[in-house]
Design a protein that fits this description.
Elements lengths: L2 H7 L2 H6 L26 H8 L7 H4 L7 E2 L5 E5 L4 H6 L6 H12 L8 E5 L13 H18 L3 E5 L1 H8 L5 H4 L4 E3 L2 E6 L2 H6 L8 H20 L1
Parallel strand pairs: 2-3, 2-4, 4-6
Antiparallel strand pairs: 1-3, 5-6
The structure holds uracil.
Uracil binds next to α6.
Length: about 230
């Protein structure tokens, strides 16, 4: 089907009318050249339905489950990771493997509850084979879903775990060790780059200046800012 034909198929009123019992996958533009405009979705539910049948990039052919996100839909804090790994692909839930368990502990260390205080998602909703970094085209194809999630959840603070999350959301290509712990304003939103928990698993040093120590500094900074913006 040509891009033009897809464009004409992509009628927002029809999309808005789709329900869980009535997903119309043919209405999702399968070419990433076809935009999904801001305001397309009125809740997370149809985003999830569409991600689960999405073929906007080739990751749609190899996924078991799309991993759309989970947590409090009114959370003040949104965490954006890179892409699902094997455990996430199998379960359809973000950050449930070893890195996810460490992320839970990091959140707990500043009394943040993953279910209550946070919404967790990823730049890419489908697992790249072999856990490779998603390509620029894959990131671009999936980005409208993320932008809609951010618009609907409207978090006070966005945490970006690792360089792929920072680049995927803001376009900032600087190395994560350079920019972690510093606030970035993106689209009027407060965003904080932090190290990816998987990096901490590979480099578990707790020494001053080491990855775990840096994470502890950064998560305390985030907690303090959250208390400030919520007070
Ligand atoms: N790593 C990520 O970036 N996201 C996940 O959901 C799991 C591991």
């Amino acid at each position: 089907m040509s891009t033009e034909e897809q464009m004409s198929l992509f009628d927002q009123s029809e999309l808005a009318a789709s329900t869980s019992a009535n997903v119309q996958p043919e209405l999702i533009p399968t070419s990433a050249a076809v935009p999904i405009p801001s305001g397309t979705y009125d809740s997370i539910v149809p985003i999830a339905e569409h991600c689960n049948v999405c073929q906007r990039c080739d990751l749609g052919t190899t996924r078991t489950h799309a991993v759309v996100g989970e947590g409090n839909l009114n959370a003040p804090l949104m965490i954006i990771g890179e892409a699902p790994g094997q455990n996430e692909d199998e379960t359809g839930r973000p950050f449930v493997g070893k890195a996810g368990q460490l992320l839970d502990k990091i959140l707990e260390s500043v009394k943040l509850d993953r279910k209550k205080d946070v919404y967790i998602t990823n730049i890419n909703k489908c697992r790249p084979p072999g856990n490779r970094v998603p390509t620029t085209d894959e990131v671009a194809a999936c980005k409208p879903y993320l932008l809609e999630q951010i618009r609907l959840i409207d978090p006070k603070i966005i945490l970006m775990t690792g360089a792929t999350a920072v680049k995927g959301l803001t376009g900032d290509k600087r190395g994560i060790t350079k920019i972690r712990g510093t606030w970035i304003e993106w689209e009027g939103r407060l965003c904080m780059p932090i190290l990816h928990p998987a990096y901490l698993l590979r480099n578990p040093s707790r020494e001053q200046g080491g990855p775990k120590w840096l994470m502890w500094q950064d998560i305390q900074t985030v907690r303090a800012k959250l208390d400030e913006v919520l007070s």
